[in-house]
Amino acid sequence: MTASPREREATIRQVLGLPAEIDLRASVTSSGQLVRAGYTVEKLRLDRPGQVPLPALLCVPEGATGRCPAVVYADSAGKAAGLEPGGAIERELKENRIVLAVDLRGYGETADVESGGRYLNDAFRTSMLAMHLGRPLVGQRVEDLLVALDFLANHPSVDAGDMRLFGVGRAGPVVLHAAALSPACKAVKLAGSIRSWTDDVVARPRDPQLLELAVPGALAHYDLADLAAMLGDRLSVVSSSPAASTPAASTPDTSNK
């Protein structure tokens, strides 16, 4: 992508089906708090009119004072997947970072639980509907991440100048896009994510789990590697681990039900 930053942003928004301006303000509902060794977990739901609710876990390290750096954690296995002892979220908390773990639409609590048994994969119906509407699922999930960043930026315990994104599994490409569109994002981590639409999606058309990552027409303008290049040294790739990629059977109830 050789265009100016403003032109690049406009192109990305166009292919994702995002409007030029989005009202990111959300009403916040808390449904309880868990106390774990070294940190607390508050169960939240972020709501915007006419939009899918965004379930979230606000994890705050014990003894945090003043304004702390913060991370939005998005995992295709669900928001609680990194909460195993020693998992990805706990590692961030030990660095004195507040973590907001979110269920991007179609993940975790908002997953289409009936789709997997009847269709190609667990995101088939939502992916197809999103593309027919001209709003690819990647773009809708990017909007969820921008809402999460806005929530953190306005939280009294968060240093709005030090916010990061962490994407695991199929949430990785969503995180890349959100970081490219958000100057508020200081750094990005990816784990277990695909790195290219050309090599990892187009070249593997029979892979049942890649439909949700399709963005029609995007390759006429850029590939995921171009987004990674735009981020430069803000981007780091870490090794995926069971704690960062699969839900733990022993994880306490972190749903908003």
Total domain modules: 1
Strand order in the sheet with the most strands: 1-2-3-5-4-6-7-8
Structural class of the helix and strand makeup?
alpha/beta
Mean pLDDT: 89
CATH class: Alpha Beta
CATH architecture classification? 3-Layer(aba) Sandwich
Specify the oligomeric state.
Answer: single chain
**Percent helix:** 25-40%
Q: From the alpha-carbon coordinates, what is the Rg to the nearest angstrom? A: 17 Å
Please give the alpha-carbon distance between the first and last residues.
44 Å
What's the count of strands?
A: 8
Q: Main beta sheet: strand number and arrangement?
A: 8 strands, mixed
Q: What amount of the residues lies in strands?
A: 15-25%
Q: What is the CATH T-level topology? A: Rossmann fold
Outline the low-pLDDT stretches: 242-252
Q: In sequence order, what are the helices and strands, one letter per element?
A: HEEEEHEHHHEHEHHEH
What shape does the CA trace take? globular
CATH superfamily: Alpha/Beta hydrolase fold, catalytic domain
What is the count of DSSP helices, taking H or I runs of 4+ residues?
Answer: 9
